TrEMBL record:
PANTHER family: ARABINOSE-BINDING PROTEIN-RELATED (PTHR43649), SN-GLYCEROL-3-PHOSPHATE-BINDING PERIPLASMIC PROTEIN UGPB (PTHR43649:SF31)
GO CC annotations on file: periplasmic space
One Pfam family hit: SBP_bac_1
Keyword Ribonucleoprotein attributed: no
Protein name (Swiss-Prot/TrEMBL): sn-glycerol-3-phosphate-binding periplasmic protein UgpB
Subcellular location: Periplasm
Residues in the signal sequence: 1-19
Subunit architecture: The complex is composed of two ATP-binding proteins (UgpC), two transmembrane proteins (UgpA and UgpE) and a solute-binding protein (UgpB).
Family indicated by similarity: Belongs to the bacterial solute-binding protein 1 family.
């Protein structure tokens, strides 16, 4: 009897161990299955995407992806813009590069020049169809024979104008016809002078005009870096301050001198553009140059829709960028992509996520989050329908047609010592706005020497 009980207890113990081991194995397999999900971290901070409403919407995108994919999970890593560069470099040096960086503009790519993966092989391996993307957006992110990412969207530029100010002055609105060659910067200057008014009702042609007591100005283009402002004046290298080999500074070219002098004269001679003190005045009336109703015409990009058109108290519309003094139209553009760092692990999975984020099913939502036009031609009608509900009454043909006139070479494109060059150019524009120096030739000759010194030192060590 004792022997039977002994063998029965052995049998029960064995069964328990088998069941227990089986359970542990099943649980281990389940844990292993979870661990098999590859994580793709999306670093957000070089461009837009860091506002609270954008963060919430990106978290919703993250949830939508992770709930429908078994092999990959994504995480949007949101970093404040002023910390993004240092945080990104720290991740690289720590061997923890994110798998994707975006939305990343041309400036963001330039700041980390040489650190991005070429996605051309992924495109070839997948036979990925690129024909739906605006060709201009592809060209912007091509570096030599490399393609650095898939475009999310583009931000063409235009003239935002205050209809109420035009109506009050009895002046016709700017044309919306891109073929009308009478719409040039000289014409803009003429009507901007008429649209400018002090609080006593005088415009700049009056001896009683009081520039320190303003009702509104005719024109402003201050929400752009200096290279972006100067690109429209038709220099040989458009928005780039060097020759194509990056060895010779060309900052004091005749077109840029003309353009900067046009700005200086517009502020200090013709007085239809606000100076630095005037900018403080209109910021007191609104959060941006246009919103407070103190600027008749504001040159900016589609990202300004979300920034400034939501709660305007006056009638407004958009018009094409004018022709320049050479009879050319150069409408600067901004654009965003998702890019893969060269140091990233799991590049294949990053490519799969990149395709998903820029696919037609998600592209409109991503464009709405980031304030751009989807980079896919096929989505233009769908996106315009959304915009018409959000921002009714605008002539959206102006927005779309402007894409073909982009600045190339681009005003944010890489040059050696990119950040220091940007600082020099920014200081040059500040001299004009402050009135510290009003002669564009003097300013740009000085800038050219400083940039040439940077280039010479750079090439001595490269």
């Amino acid at each position: 009897m004792k022997k039977k009980l002994f063998w029965l207890s052995v049998l029960i113990t064995s069964l328990f161990l088998v069941v227990s081991c089986g359970k542990e194995k099943k649980e281990a397999n389940q844990v292993s299955s979870v661990k098999e999900k590859t994580k793709v971290v999306i670093f957000v901070g070089f461009g837009t995407g860091t506002n609270p409403d954008q963060i919430a919407k990106q978290e919703a995108v993250q949830e939508a992806y992770n709930s429908t994919h078994d092999n990959i999970e994504i995480e949007f890593l949101i970093v404040p813009h002023d910390e993004a560069n240092d945080r990104y470099l720290a991740m690289l040096s720590g061997g923890n590069a994110p798998q994707l960086v975006g939305p990343n503009g041309i400036a963001g790519l330039a700041q980390q020049h040489g650190s991005w993966s070429d996605i051309s092989q992924f495109i070839e391996d997948d036979n990925f169809d690129m024909s739906d993307f605006y060709p201009e957006s592809i060209n912007l992110f091509s570096d030599s024979d490399k393609l650095l990412g898939l475009p999310i969207g583009v931000f063409p530029s235009m003239i935002f104008y205050n209809k109420d100010i035009f109506d009050s002055a009895g002046i016709d609105y700017p044309t919306h016809d891109y073929s009308d060659r009478s719409w040039n910067y000289e014409k803009l200057r003429e009507i901007a002078i008429e649209l400018t008014m002090d609080k006593n009702g005088n415009n700049p042609t009056s001896p009683q005009f009081d520039q320190k007591n303003m009702q509104h100005w005719g024109y402003d283009d201050s929400w752009i870096a200096a290279r972006g402002y100067l690109a429209k004046w038709g220099a040989e290298f458009v928005g780039r301050p060097t020759t194509p080999d990056y060895k010779t500074a060309t900052t004091n070219n005749e077109e840029w001198v003309y353009g900067l002098q046009w700005l200086s004269d517009g502020i200090w001679k013709d007085r239809f553009i606000p100076d630095a003190a005037g900018q403080s005045t209109y910021y007191g009336a609104g959060a941006d140059p246009f919103g407070g109703g103190m600027v008749a015409m504001f040159e900016s990009h589609t990202w300004f829709f979300a920034e400034g058109l939501g709660s305007l108290s006056f009638e407004h519309d958009i018009a094409p960028i004018p022709f320049n003094q050479k009879g050319e139209r150069i409408a600067r553009i901004h654009a965003n992509i998702f890019a893969i760092p060269e140091a990233a692990k799991n590049k294949k999975e990053a490519w799969e996520v990149m395709k998903w984020l820029t696919a037609p099913e998600q592209a409109v939502e991503m464009a709405l989050i980031y304030g751009c036009i989807p980079a896919r031609v096929s989505l233009s009608d769908d996106f315009q329908t959304v915009l018409e509900k959000e921002y009714p009454g605008l002539d959206y043909s102006v927005m779309y047609e402007g894409i073909q006139y982009l600045d190339d070479p681009h005003h944010e494109s890489w040059v050696p010592e990119w950040s220091r060059v940007e600082e020099i150019m920014g200081n040059s524009a500040s001299l004009v706005y402050s009135g510290e120096e009003k002669d564009a030739r003097i300013i740009l000759d000085t800038a050219n020497k400083e940039i040439q010194d940077l280039l010479d030192n750079y090439w001595e060590s490269h």
